[in-house]
Structures are given as structure tokens and as C-alpha cells.
Amino acid sequence: MSTQLLAEFPELSHLSREDLEELLVDPVYFQAVFHTLNQVKSLYQAQTELGLANESIAKNNLTLQDSLFTLRTETKDAFEDAKALEARWKELDREQKEVYQRFTPQFLLMRLRHATIAQDDLSETRASSFVQGSSSSEETQTVANGKDIDDFVREFKEMRKVYHKRVMWGDRWAAGQVVWRDD
User: Fold this and answer.
1) How far is CA 169 from CA 88, 109, 135, in A?
2) Is the pTM of this model over 0.70?
3) Cα-flanking dihedrals φ and ψ of residue 102, to 5°?
4) Are 41 and 35 in contact (CB under 8 A)?
5) Residue 101, pLDDT above cutoff 60
6) CB count, 10 Å around CB of 33?
7) Higher confidence at residue 146 or residue 41?
8) Does residue 153 contact residue 161 with C-beta atoms inside 8 Å?
């Protein structure tokens, strides 16, 4: 008897037709014959080997579990520390920018211009007060005012010198002759 069943399962060739029919009817007999087939035996052997390998991997994972939980906790703590440091960095960076804002070239130029105007106003106010003070004085105080005139000239000259230096720096800046290094 040469059938497709016997071609695929040559182990069943020793069974008679009645035995094959009995296989289809009796589940216990079917299981007994089924488990004796070489293909089934090798399948069960492979399944057993895979189960043992899986069990070995599971045991290995269980031995690593505590160290992994510790590592996870340490990593979480390090991440939280890094986030806190990052937030602190942003805060410090903002503070630094605020501090350095006073030293930017634009801000320094503005301060120079304001200081130049203030110096000019100061010297002009001093000169006006001296002229008004001397015009109201009488001729008898002219001798006593000689020292006052020398003091005024020296003071006014110093004020105007500072003013003109600031004007020169402002002119150089406007001409692009002032270079600010970032170091």
C-alpha cells in the first residue's frame, strides 16, 4: 500500500489498515502511536531543550535582577541630578547674561555718551557759576580772587580735558577704530 500517508510517515507502514482505522477512533491509541514517531520525539526533544535554555536564561535574569534594580535607581537619581544641574545652569546662564549686559559694546558706548554729556554739562555749569559769581563781586575782591581764578582755571581745564578725551573715544568708536575682544 503506497499512499501519501505512508510516504510522509514511513514509521506507520508496519500498521495494518485496521490499525490505522483504530488510530482514528481511539485517542489513547493515537497518542501512543503519535508519541513514538521520530519526528514527534525530535520535536519534543527540541521543545525540552528550548524550555531548559529558557529556564536557564530566566535564572540568570533573576540573579541579575537586584543589580539591575540598583542600577536603575542609580540611573534615575543621576538623571534627576542632571536635570537639576541643567535647571541650575539655565539660571546661572541667565544671571551671567544679566551681569555681562553691562559690559556689552552697545551698553558701554551708551555709558560713554552719557558720561560725555554729563561731563560737558558739569563743566559748563561750573563755568557759569564762576562767571556769575565773579560778575556780582566788587572790584575790591579782585586781588583775593586771583587764587580763585587759578583754582577755577585748573579745575575747568581738567573737566574739559576729561570731556574732550571722552569725545575722542566716542569719535574713534564711531569710526570703527575701537575693537572689543571677547576674551
Assistant:
1) 39, 9, 36
2) no
3) -70, -10
4) yes
5) yes
6) 19
7) 41
8) no
d(CA 93, CA 86): 10
Among 34, 56, 36, 38, CA closest to 46: 38
Query: What sign does the CA torsion over 51, 53, 59, 64 have?
Result: negative
Q: Has residue 38 got a pLDDT over 90? A: no
CA angle, residues 173, 177, 181, in degrees to nearest 5: 90
Helical pair 105-135 and 145-174, crossing angle rounded to 10 deg = 160
Alpha carbons 13 and 2: distance in angstroms, whole number: 9
Range 98-128 burial, b when 16+ CB lie within 10 A, else e: eeeeeeeeeeebeebeeebeebbeebeeeee
Instruction: Please state, in angstroms and rounded to a whole number, the distance separating the CA atoms of residues 152 and 168.
Output: 24
Q: For residue 12, which of 42, 121, 1, 152 has the smallest C-alpha distance?
A: 1
